[in-house]
Amino acid sequence: MDIKFLLKPLLIASLAMGLFVSCSDDDNPVGPEPEPEPEPEEQHPYADDIVENGVILSEPIEGDRTLSADSVYYIDGYIFVESGTLEIEPGTVIMAFEEPSEVAEGNESSLIITRDAQIDAEGTPEEPIIFTSELDEEPFGESIILNQNNSKLWAGLIVLGKAPIDSEGADEVQIEGIPDGEARALYGGDDPEHSSGILKYVSIRFSGAEIGPGDEIQGLTLGGVGRGTTIEYIDIFVSADDGIEIFGGTVDIRNISVAFAEDDSFDFDLGWSGTGQYMFAIQGGNGADHGGEWDGAKPDNNSSYSTARLYNATFIGQGLNSTERSEDAPAVMMRDGSAYSLYNSIVTDFNGLGIQVEDKDESEDSYDKTINNVNGDDASIAGNIWYTGNASSIETMISVTGESSRDADGSLTAAWLNDRDNVFEDPELGGICRIQGCGVLDPLPASTSVNSIAANVADSNVDQTTYVGAFEPGQTTWISGWTTLARYGYLAD
């Protein structure tokens, strides 16, 4: 489907002036006629082309509504879906204005699904649903205008739910990235089975706009989302902040691709206790931070905290010799009393260390909850391949930080990781590239360890795999064909 539009919104103004003077034979002059009444200002001050060819979303959505693939939709400011179900048909394109108009709510463009609403956005590999910038002139092809350096063109997609969170004992809090005091931006509750709907085969591009200095919105933000929600086959391409951030909740995520996030690729916080499987990330030379920043709760010693279990990830950093990050920066960071598990994954091509675990010498820290298993969570980091620039072994890729000195050299953590079949070696990916159109990115590993170290897991929520990494060896990758990486020519296939 080819889409050609005038892309930038324009203010429409009209000015009409008239002056008519006439004289009669009796020399009685007639004064100027009154100026005509000004024409009423149009409801949406956009270019005629956009009004004619697209549908403007500039007001809250109440009740059920369907967005059809027959139209193109433009997000103007904050669009809260307050109630009902927002259905988005396969192949629908939703564009966001970089600069919202004067009739818009908020200073950036974002779609926010509130706790009392649902989203039904189920695309297909042939017809994904695309959220992108108004400047994306070829959403279903390869842009000649935009690339991996074009972040902050709009804010992002936010989904809020009623599942439990762990934040200062509160049942509900306001999502970050929205100005304080907005009741519609609250998330959290007491329903772990709550459903916010479905996101499947959805592409989110060029996001991360700031609502204030240093306050950006992620590509996809999930707040208190319950396990009744489906989040699968999500493509996040270029975000000025994190690719995806999950605040609490119980939702399970699968088949998530994050390319060129400028902060963390996968950021988890406030007691998320779901599962994640088949997660892919590649970072670019844009100052990106961690592949994973995995936090626990507020405060650290909260009685409940993050216990999410993650399987089959492939995280590719900025390059073993990159100077964009500190050589001490870890690819994965666990802190704030979290107890995450990571199984059967590949962490490679980061310039710094492999993993950092926070140890405050207190029962609520991540070190005790994972390495020492003080609360019986049985968190584990098992069956993974690590390969980073500032290390040469499992022993040298570890950083244990905090007030405690009980494992200052990381030797205890290293022994724990070695006992769980973690190896430090080059996974021998088929190809890595970060240039649009390169056509050589192949995240399938050739290392023989891929099929020999995979840990057996007892988790009914995930597929039982016998390989390491996000992609099954010998098969077409699940990012082929429909993601922005595929459409922009990064992939080898």
TrEMBL record:
Keywords: Signal. Residues 1-25 form the signal peptide. PANTHER family: LIPL48, SECRETED PROTEIN. This is Multidrug transporter.
